[in-house]
Amino acid sequence: MPRRRITQADVAAMAGVSQATVSFVLNDSNPSGVRISEETRQRVRDAIRITGYSANPAAQRLAGGLTQILGVFTYESTFPQGGRDFYGPFLVGIEHAAEKLGVDILLFTSARVEDGRRRLTRDGWQRLGIADGCLLLGQHEDRGELQHLLDTNYPFVFIGKRGSDGGRLPYVGVDYVAATARQVDRLAALGHTRIGYVGSRGTDQPTLDRVEGYRATMKRHGLTVRFVELDDVAATAAEVADQRLTAVLVAPENSPEELADELERRGLRVPDDISVLLLGQPLHPRPGGRRWSGFSIPREEMGARALHLLSRLVAADTGRPARRDAPQVPDDELRQLLGCVDVDAETLAPPPA
Fold first, then answer.
1. What is the DSSP string of 309-332?
2. How far apart are CA 273 and CA 323, in angstroms?
3. pTM of full prediction above 0.85
4. Helix (H) or strand (E) holding 134
5. How far apart are CA 95 and CA 97, in angstroms?
6. To 10 degrees, the CA torsion angle through 48, 52, 57, 59?
7. C-alpha distances in angstroms, 4 versus 15, 51, 53, 112, 197?
8. Strand 275-279 versus strand 335-338 pairing type
9. Which UniProt keywords are given for this protein, alphabetically ordered (predicted)?
10. CA dihedral 269, 273, 277, 281 (to 10 degrees)
11. Tens-binned pLDDT, residue by residue, of the chain (353 aa)
């Protein structure tokens, strides 16, 4: 028969103290008017070690203590399927940071993916209380949910740049504006003047930043902005050819391999006739596919930095009166943008003579 769960009452009985004293020792607290000697605290610690008692995380959270558990919630499916592993590097960075910080990671997976996305509030907010704070990542967040987290002072950090009313939302993202601008500079330095941007101009933050970097840098070089809307691959390639572009910038979600294949079927060799720069790593790399020039996103570092920021927010959580004297995180550190690394590979060359 499995033995029953050890309770605080068992620890209190072994140490010869009250359950309240056990709770105070577990939370390392010094309540007003109560004095607990170091000898008593040691007896409680010994009893915890001997009995193997572990606090109920949810109860410890409700009591105002810290569980040393940090959550991770993704708005889309997390684990790779069919070779897709976009979130993998983020999780690797999170794991390494958690090991250094000495905290456990809880992946929230009970919310089903419906219409390509999850919702934090599917089963109410109570589940988040198991963790001291939570990392959020994904492309289909609910702004109302994020605002609720801000209003209730629940510690969280978004992996990826996000805006919010009042600019209060903490995040660790990448500087797509500067990275995209550098790609235009690289092309202009080689002599390209007919540089296009391929892709839908959506309202997601990465797209907005890429378009801003492209548009501003083309203007700085005195070049004409040339957008090619992403339709089916054949129509997109035809538009690139019709505009006589010598280089294009392509977001990784916009089927770069298929686009390059179609361009070459039309007699435009990559990169001899047309350079293709990828604005981030390919989401679905083709085995034996092209080695793309462009820039890469430091996803592992993003995950690690986000967890470190979250741990600081938990330590400074003003939602707990006992933590009001904790050091606060400066505003300029709540929103961090990391630099991207330029990649020199096979798809960049000077324009044809």
1. HHHHHHHT-TTSGGGTTSPPPPHH
2. 62
3. no
4. strand 133-137
5. 5
6. -60
7. 19, 12, 11, 32, 64
8. unpaired
9. DNA-binding, Repressor, Transcription, Transcription regulation
10. 10
11. 344 567 788 888 999 998 888 888 877 777 666 788 889 999 998 988 887 776 655 555 545 556 788 989 888 766 655 545 677 889 999 999 999 999 999 888 766 666 656 677 655 566 777 888 899 988 778 788 888 888 878 899 999 998 776 678 999 999 999 999 999 999 999 999 999 999 888 888 899 999 999 999 999 999 999 999 877 899 999 999 999 999 999 998 888 999 999 999 999 999 999 999 999 988 777 888 899 999 999 999 999 999 999 999 988 864 444 344 456 788 888 999 999 999 999 999 999 98
CA-closest candidate to residue 179, choices 202, 152, 161, 158:
161
Fold exhibited by the domain 8-55: 434 Repressor (Amino-terminal Domain) (1.10.260)
CA distance from start to end of the chain: 82
Q: Which CATH superfamily is domain 176-296 in?
A: Response regulator (3.40.50.2300)
* Phi, psi torsion values for 141, nearest 5 degrees: -75, 160
Tokens at 116, concatenated: 């390509």
Q: Note the residue count of the chain.
A: 353
Architecture of domain 69-174+299-338: 3-Layer(aba) Sandwich (3.40)
